[in-house]
Structures are given as C-alpha cells and as structure tokens.
Amino acid sequence: MRIFHSAASLSIISYCAVSSPFVACSSYQDHVEDRKFNHKADQQLSPKMVSDINLHGVLLWASMGFLMPLGVIAVRMSHREEGGRRKALIYLHFVLQILSVLLATTGAIMSIKSFENSFYNNHQRIGLGLYGAIWVQAVAGFLRPHR
C-alpha cells in the first residue's frame, strides 16, 4: 500500500512538472481578443511586458502548482511515519508552504506593479481570490494550536 501511495504521488508530481509548460495564460488571450475590437490594434506587447507575463506565470506555477502540492504530500506522508522522519517531513511541509506563500506574494506584487489591474476579467479575479486563500491558509497554519 505504501508503494502505491509513493508511486501515485510521484506520478502526480511528474504530470504537473511535464504538463505545466503547455498551459497558456488566459488573461493574455483575453488581452489579445480585446485588442481585436480596439482601435489601437496596431500596438504590440513590449518585450519587457512579455517577459513580465512569463515570469508572473512561472512564479505562480512554482508556488501553486509545484511547491504547495509538495508540501501537502509531505504532511500527508508524515502521518504514516514515526520519530525523526515524521519531524523532518513536518519541517519540509513548513518550508515548502512558506516558500510557496513568498513566491505567490512576489508574483502578486509584480502583477500590481507591472500590469493593468482593473479586475475586469476572470483571470485577475480568480488570482485575487487565490491570493487571499493562500494568506488565510498561511495565517491559519501559524495560529493552529499545537497537538
């Protein structure tokens, strides 16, 4: 049974790592479609804006799509362990979740500084909701009573 859980965890992580480069940014597509109906259609995204969009996507994928699930897997695995290994997995969970929150905060700050944030599209609204949920989860983790 333990081998099955390890194999399932490894396959989920592998799937996320392999499929992530093929995911497109929905707000970029919204921006392109909005420009079709705009009179300023001859304007192109600057290379800096394209790199900011890519960095924003990588930061938030690493946070929400990689580090946070790894932290969840680590804490789930800690319930089956005893002694020092259990403590190490709990610390790994703690470190992965903190790194995830820091990367998400970096991506959110970059978004606020670099992009137009009128929250008129679903991508921005969902991002704001997820960012709030990340911080609620982090604060709840710190305020959690010890067992």
From TrEMBL:
It is found in: Membrane. Residues 1-19 form the signal peptide. Its cofactor is heme b. Residues 9-147 form the Cytochrome b561 domain. GO terms for molecular function: heme binding; metal ion binding; transmembrane monodehydroascorbate reductase activity. Its main location: membrane. The chain crosses the membrane at residues 58-77, 89-112, 124-143. InterPro entries: CYB561D1/2, Cyt_b561/ferric_Rdtase_TM. SMART domains: B561. It is a multi-pass membrane protein. Gene3D superfamilies: 1.20.120.1770. Keywords: Electron transport, Heme, Iron, Membrane, Metal-binding, Signal, Transmembrane, Transmembrane helix, Transport. One of its GO terms (cellular component) is membrane. It comes from the Eukaryota. The keyword Lipid metabolism does not apply. PANTHER family: CYTOCHROME B561 DOMAIN-CONTAINING PROTEIN, OS05G0565100 PROTEIN. This is Cytochrome b561 domain-containing protein. It comes from Salix udensis.
